[in-house]
Hints:
By secondary structure, this protein is of the alpha/beta class. It contains eight helices and six strands, in the order E-H-E-H-E-H-H-E-H-H-E-E-H-H. It has helices spanning 14-27, 50-61, 72-75, 82-92, 104-108, 116-120, 170-178, 189-198; strands at 2-7, 31-36, 67-69, 98-103, 124-129, 158-162.
Amino acid sequence: MIGILGGTFDPIHYGHLRTALDVQQTLGLEEIRLVPLRDPPHRAHPTLSPADRLALLHAAVDDNPLFRVDTRELERSGKSYTLDTLRSLRSEQPGDTFCLLLGSDAFNGFHTWHRPDEILELAHLVVMQRPGEAEPAHYHEHLTHNPAALKQQAAGLILPLPVTQLEISATGIREMLGQGNSPRYLLPDAVLELIRQKRLYRSG
Length: 204
């Protein structure tokens, strides 16, 4: 099974990386694909260029063979729809099982995504939850609490999974940097060093 974590990664930080690693270890995923979005349909356009966000991603994960940066959404024009990405992955790797990793807030809006039912035909959803968080509010007929069930069918299940909760936001990191403060210990040192070298997120 392969985990898919999409996002603007503006910038990538430990809130993304630690939770993804939790899922990888719990489910025994072969790898985690980090998929940076070019033009996200449900949020503001990223602050940094695709090239700069991609460079930060590589700085964060290139030393970890469990993580792989997937650039297909950056290379595609138009809105970055998850359905298109999953169709592309499925055509390349028809024998693999894909698990789409979502935070609880993202999953609560999943029913408003572009063709969500078709997404469930191509992948499982893993809802990364804060400990003690309530059950997902939609798609109860797809719900399972058995991680092993994801290996028994190719797609269509939704697994709530508690993960390490790190209250880190890319917005907060950008604000720190814009104010001249250090976000050290919120993101990998290699990412912070590249931000400094390239003078990213500086006010003015």
